[in-house]
């Protein structure tokens, strides 16, 4: 379910960055993404409800001004990330699953996987959790692009990088924005042991969700198991995937008897 077109009408469409979220003093270039639909109106409404802070210059120092700007940027960023909670993962929509998980649902359980995994030599658990939280964050703007969308991998990466740049501008740049960029790129390039492990968690979470939907909806979702077969890079990924597949095989065998 890698990737990102806006979801169908049965799910919440990811919203683009709208100028009303941006601090004019921070962003001077036009938005990369054209506003559209109800999400744009919702963001405008939310942003316009944030009271403007206009202290008397004689009563405020630069630290207070900076803190206020930082708070505004943080809430703008979190508002933009709201669509991660409401945008449904397109792979499940394409298979007719009613009320499927959101992008945020997927990332949250991946973060839990990183939290509960046993200690592994050379693996920084905290970094794994962080990578899991941000690996699909650009989908807040571009949505969930799946292989069925026919978007080349290079183009998908370009779109997501542009979206991530916009999001980090909303956040106001700085150390935290740089960290998000670094974590996302590390995952995208599969550039570390931590990225290897989180890539496996991405696949493990997907097939576990597939098994759960098979059980809940009495469906057979072979595609998700076939697409991940033999692609796990780590021992824990292979072990957890094997356990899920064993449970699935047991369930299918019981259905035949």
Which SSEs are present, and which pair or pack?
Layout: H1 37-49, H2 62-80, H3 82-86, H4 90-94, H5 103-116, H6 125-134, H7 139-142, H8 153-171, H9 174-188, H10 193-217, H11 222-228, H12 235-256
Cα end-to-end separation: 32 Å
Q: How many helices in DSSP terms? A: 12
Q: How helical, in percent, are the residues?
A: 55-70%
Q: Give the C-alpha Rg.
A: 20 Å
Order of helices and strands: HHHHHHHHHHHH
Helix vs. strand class: mainly alpha
Spatial shape:
globular
Q: Strand content of the residues, in percent?
A: under 5%
List the uncertain runs.
Answer: 2-60
Extended strand count: 0
**Average residue-wise pLDDT:** 82
Main sheet attributes: strand count, strand direction, barrel closure: none
Structure description:
There is one protein chain. With 257 residues, the chain is mostly helical. Helices cover 61% and strands 0% of the residues. The protein contains twelve helices and no strands. The protein has helices at 37-49, 62-80, 82-86, 90-94, 103-116, 125-134, 139-142, 153-171, 174-188, 193-217, 222-228, 235-256. Helix 6 packs across helix 10 (193-217) and helix 8 (153-171) packs antiparallel against helix 9 (174-188). The radius of gyration is 20 Å and the shape is globular. Residues 2-60 have low confidence and may be disordered. It comes from Lactuca virosa.
Concise structural overview:
The protein has 257 residues and is an all-alpha fold.
Task: Kindly list the characteristics that best describe this protein.
single chain; 257 residues; mainly alpha; 61% helix; 0% strand; globular; disordered N terminus; 5'-deoxynucleotidase activity; 5'-deoxynucleotidase; HD_domain; HD/PDEase_dom
């Amino acid at each position: 379910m890698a990737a990102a077109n806006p979801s169908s009408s049965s799910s919440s469409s990811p919203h683009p960055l709208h100028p009303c979220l941006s601090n004019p003093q921070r962003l001077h270039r036009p938005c990369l993404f054209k506003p559209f639909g109800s999400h744009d109106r919702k963001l405008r409404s939310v942003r316009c409800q944030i009271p403007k802070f206009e202290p008397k210059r004689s009563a405020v120092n630069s630290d207070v001004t900076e803190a206020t700007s930082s708070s505004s940027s943080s809430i703008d960023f979190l508002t933009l990330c709201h669509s991660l909670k409401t945008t449904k993962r397109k792979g499940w929509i394409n298979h007719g699953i009613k009320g499927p998980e959101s992008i945020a649902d997927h990332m949250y359980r991946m973060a839990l996987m990183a939290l509960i995994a046993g200690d592994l030599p050379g693996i920084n658990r905290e970094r794994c959790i962080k990578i899991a939280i941000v690996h699909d964050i650009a989908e807040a703007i571009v949505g969930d692009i799946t292989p069925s969308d026919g978007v080349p991998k290079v183009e998908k990466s370009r779109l997501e990088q542009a979206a991530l740049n916009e999001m980090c501008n909303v956040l106001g740049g700085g150390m935290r924005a740089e960290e998000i960029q670094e974590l996302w790129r590390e995952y995208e390039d599969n550039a570390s042991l931590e990225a290897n492990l989180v890539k496996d968690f991405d696949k493990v979470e997907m097939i576990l969700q597939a098994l759960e939907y098979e059980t809940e909806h009495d469906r057979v979702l072979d595609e998700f198991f076939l697409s991940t077969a033999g692609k796990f890079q780590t021992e824990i990924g292979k072990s957890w995937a094997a356990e899920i597949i064993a449970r699935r095989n047991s369930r299918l065998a019981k259905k035949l008897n």
